[in-house]
Amino acid sequence: MKNLLILGAGTAGTMMLNKLYKKLPDDWKITIIDKDPLHYYQPGFIFIPFGIYNPESVVKPKSDFFPKGTHAIWDEVVRIDGETNLVELKKAGALKYDLLIIATGTTPRPEETPGLKGELWNKDIFDFYTFEGTSKLANRLKTWEGGELVINIAESIIKCPVAPLEFAFLADSYFKEKGIRDKVNITYTTPLAGAFTKPKATQVLSGLLEKKGIKVIPEFYLEKVDNEKKRIISYDEQEIAFDLLISIPVNMGADLVEESSMGDDDDLQFIPTDKHTLQSKEFENIFVIGDATNLPTSKAGSVAHFEAEVLTENILSYVKGEPLEGSFDGHANCFIETGNGKAALIDFNYDIEPLPGVFPIPGIGPMSLLKESRINHYGKLMFEWVYWHMLITGKKLPVSTPLSMKGKILNEV
After folding, report:
1. Which of 38, 145, 162, 297 is deepest in the core (most CB within 10 A)?
2. Residues 261 and 240 placed together within one structural domain of the fold
3. Model confidence over 164-222: pLDDT tens digits?
4. How confident is the model over 92-142, as pLDDT tens digits?
5. For residue 271, what are the domain limits?
6. How crowded is residue 409: how many other Cβ atoms within 10 Å of its Cβ?
7. How far apart are the C-alpha atoms of 160 and 93, rounded to whole Å?
8. What angle is formed at CA 71 by the lines to CA 67 and CA 76, rounded to 5 degrees?
9. Same domain for 55 and 180?
């Protein structure tokens, strides 16, 4: 019997388990390993602070989405030895593998920035990328009466890069509904040169920020947080005062990556991965998916979905001893909540930036690209059902895995 181990039972790992369990030859056994038995619908975290979702609605047992008879181990992975094909677990010891899929994701690390996780943490400084953070922020916003609201992105490589923008837009809408928008100054600080990484999207999103009266401070590289004076301070000594700080901390891959000496050169613990085949650049029997990779594309659930289609093909080729012909093009597809019951939608890959047009049916849509619409907003809300019932259960979605240019307009913003 040959052993395939999947490290991580989040979005990417659960998708791969469901896609492979019936397709692998009978002489292969799949084991999935994770230290946390709870699955979080992370796209829902953005809605919790504003009372749109309840915290309880985004949590379910991971095992509910495993195929019947799945061999699951609830334990922490300490280290991978790629030379001897061993995975070391905290409680269960070492496991041998013939093939390994790493889907260990990324997590916010506020402790990486001096003062960020200080005395004001979860009092006047919050994140919304964790279940605890977004839940506590929801309680704080219920009683907050206004002042300087600062949204700070500490590092450009983050999970769901559009989420900070969504927070800014939803905050604007939320405070308008509460009747205190005139008492709130919203400042958006980012290490990027603009609102987003791609020119056309940046132009559109910057226009929305300006329209909503949200001040943008680009190229702000956070060095530290002064809890006593309630200021964030950049490396070039810019200081921005806050009454309420919404932090998007440094994101890093799992600690086991560093323990295994498998990380890339930027110390963020992401694994060097072939950007097309998703094979580890160091070990041919290791594949990496989702936020654990160092691929030059968004760390988002849609990316993991498109990667999973390609990776399934390549895993099946690998076990047959055939060439890896599946090729991932960096496809990412993201809804962007813009407040007031509207959302935008972007669709892009390694080479093609977000463009205007309609999606997914050329000439029909019904969703608009790079434009606000209510249908896009409903699409984002409906995605929760798709996520639980189709995406992580490995079912085929009616969206092309490689980026489709159908419905896109090349020479228009």
Report:
1. 162
2. no
3. 999 999 999 999 999 999 999 999 999 999 888 888 899 999 999 999 999 999 999 99
4. 999 999 999 999 999 999 999 999 999 999 999 999 999 999 999 999 999
5. 2-105+254-319
6. 13
7. 34
8. 115
9. no
